[in-house]
Write a structure and sequence with these properties.
This protein is of the alpha/beta class and 576 residues long. The chain has three domains: 19-168, Jelly Rolls; 173-273, Immunoglobulin-like (Sandwich); 300-575, Glycosidases (TIM Barrel). 48% of the residues are buried.
């Protein structure tokens, strides 16, 4: 039997041993629930790896999967997890309706215990609905026209992340938010239990060394435990240099959370965290109380054979390793809530991540409600990852095209920002990345000027910067102004170079070079311009890879090099 695709545990920051991967072959149909085809999950039907590769418009698709409950799961509570299903779905198990979920970029789960047969066959059915004519639907780069063009790409319909079962006892850990308290050399575990417990135990280790051991008697289902790290026991005299998490030294602490009932252990969850702090002080972006210059690259997270879904877990690792080998210390995960497996590898390999969500394109009350719900789910889902240092709910006024003068759209932008801050006090939050800002923590600017001279003129001093109108847009929405935020150029470059004849009809980039020498020189020119501007505290180059017709990546769509990695690395090191 062929190995299951994407069979690794899907949620590494909240791992249990008793689980079952449901990826692989499912029954499938487009339109009606005839189930006349087969599909390989978790790849969407538009992809080659799904076995279908139908890139037409599919408003409704159906999935069906039969499974038998393993012996080790019998007598326990069973949760069915979906990593992501685009965009609205309804779920049935053994003919009984379970739940619906709206939002194509975040995961969800369902308790299906009451519907299952412990012996014999169980059947999952899922209906997914995705209307690409709906411009109020958060969708990111998925194009509403049939063929991809410009900065927009092929669509993703239905299941596109892993599906799995998980078995737990009635008394179990429902969730846990882990917050490093860097200055206090401590970490907070905010827990939620399914019911009242006799004891909660947390063991923290750092390699082979014990960092902390705590056991409490919870007084309610919800609470928080602050665990102080034993720096002496860890044999670490310098906390910053020996224990802190950075992209250069991605140190992780492992933690095991155990839940006890009256009769003993009922749940055991494996997780981890990094000791790191993100802050802004005196107009400077700080990592662990030290100024940190962010060298990022825009990463769309697409693959030719599987679109939004990584073909393998190793593909995530390769992208991160290539990113770091080129001298970048971070990425803007653009117009996509990325798979938790990517964030796990960024945690352990060391890469800053600005977490974003795919935008909609027209503003309405329904759009706003959709965004609030899905963005809150994204923040909750990715909260524990130390690599995530910034949240970016809006990009370039997409979905809020009249934000400069429309008070309602400004209020929506600010609502997203303050909602994020209410859920997470440990990271910086953007308002509207690129231009037409309101009250965000950073002033982020997109500037695709194609010469060193123009870029340096744009960012020569504060007056020049605040006078900018990128893409004809003001830097601030009406009624808002600069308040001393750190300034970063979070999109620039986009130099197109196609080493071989393009296979796409409308090959595209912001500017173009025809040789590897010319390409390297132009990239160096643009990087160098920003590196020479003292007010710029970081940048994000567009982009990591070509994606379909947008061929302005540092790598091809196949992750082939356009110029040697060390060439880009040397360019990135220009201001070190």
């Amino acid at each position: 039997m062929a190995a299951l695709p994407r069979s690794e545990y899907p949620r590494p920051d909240f791992r249990r041993e008793n689980w079952l991967c449901l990826n692989g072959e499912w029954d499938f149909s487009i339109g009606e629930n005839t189930f006349d085809r087969k599909i390989t999950v978790p790849y969407a039907c538009e992809t080659a790896l799904s076995g279908i590769e139908d890139k037409g418009f599919h408003k409704t698709v159906w999935y069906r999967k039969a499974f038998a409950l393993p012996e080790r799961m019998k007598g326990k509570k069973i949760f069915l997890h979906f990593g992501a299903v685009d965009y609205i779905c309804d779920l049935w198990v053994n003919g009984q309706y379970i739940r619906s979920h709206t939002g194509g970029q975040t995961g969800f789960a369902a308790d299906i215990t009451g519907t299952l047969k412990e012996n014999g066959e169980n059947v999952i059915e899922l209906k997914a609905f995705d209307d690409y004519a709906d411009m109020e639907m958060p969708r990111g780069k998925q194009f509403w026209e049939l063929e991809s063009r410009s900065i927009f790409y092929s669509r993703t319909t239905g299941i596109w992340q892993s599906v799995w079962l998980e078995a737990v006892e009635a008394l179990h850990l429902s969730s846990c938010h882990i917050t490093p308290q860097f200055d206090d050399r401590a970490v907070e575990f905010a827990y939620c239990l399914s019911e009242e417990a006799a004891a909660l135990e947390i063991d923290v280790t750092f390699g082979e060394l014990t960092a902390a051991q705590v056991r409490i008697v919870p007084t309610s289902r919800k609470g928080a435990v602050t665990v102080h790290l034993d720096q002496t026991g860890l044999q670490a005299w310098n906390f910053q240099e020996d224990l802190a998490w950075t992209p250069e030294t991605p140190r992780l602490f492992d933690a095991v959370i155990r839940v006890y009932g009256a009769d003993g252990l009922t749940d055991e969850v494996y997780t981890y965290f990094g000791m790191r702090k993100v802050s802004i002080e005196n107009g400077k972006f700080m990592l662990n109380n030290r100024p940190y210059y962010q060298k990022m690259v825009l990463d769309q997270g697409y693959w030719e054979e599987s679109l939004l879904t990584a073909p393998t877990d190793e593909a995530f690792v390769r992208d991160i390793e290539l990113t770091k080998a080129m001298g970048f210390n971070g990425v803007r995960k653009h117009q996509k809530v990325e798979d938790p497996r990517y964030l796990y590898h960024a945690d352990r390999l060391g890469l800053l991540v600005w977490s974003e969500i795919g935008s909609a394109y027209l503003y309405s009350r329904e759009y706003a409600l959709r965004m609030y719900a899905e963005w809150a789910e994204a923040v909750e889902q990715n909260y524990n990852h130390p690599c995530v240092v910034a949240w970016t709910p809006l990009n370039e006024s997409w979905g809020v095209q009249e934000i400069r003068v429309d008070a309602e759209q400004q209020a929506h932008c600010n609502a997203l920002l303050y909602m994020t801050k209410s859920l997470d006090r440990s990271r910086v939050v953007m308002d509207n990345d690129g231009w037409e800002h309101t009250c965000g923590d950073l002033l982020t600017i997109h500037d695709y000027a194609d010469t060193e001279k123009v870029l340096m003129e744009h960012f020569a001093d504060l007056d020049s910067i605040l006078a900018l109108n990128p893409a004809g847009r003001a830097l601030f929405a009406s009624g808002w102004e600069y308040r001393g935020q750190p300034i970063l150029v979070t999109e620039f470059g986009g130099v197109k170079y196609v080493p071989q004849a393009s296979e796409w009809k409308s090959s595209w980039g912001y500017c173009e070079e025809g040789s590897p020498e010319g390409y390297a020189a132009k990239v160096a020119e643009l990087f160098g311009a920003l590196q020479k501007c003292p007010l710029v505290q970081g940048y994000c180059y567009t982009q990591l890879t070509d994606v379909e017709n947008e061929e302005n990546g540092l790598l091809t769509y196949h992750r082939e090099l356009k110029v040697p990695l060390e060439v880009i690395r040397k360019i990135n090191e220009g201001n070190d």
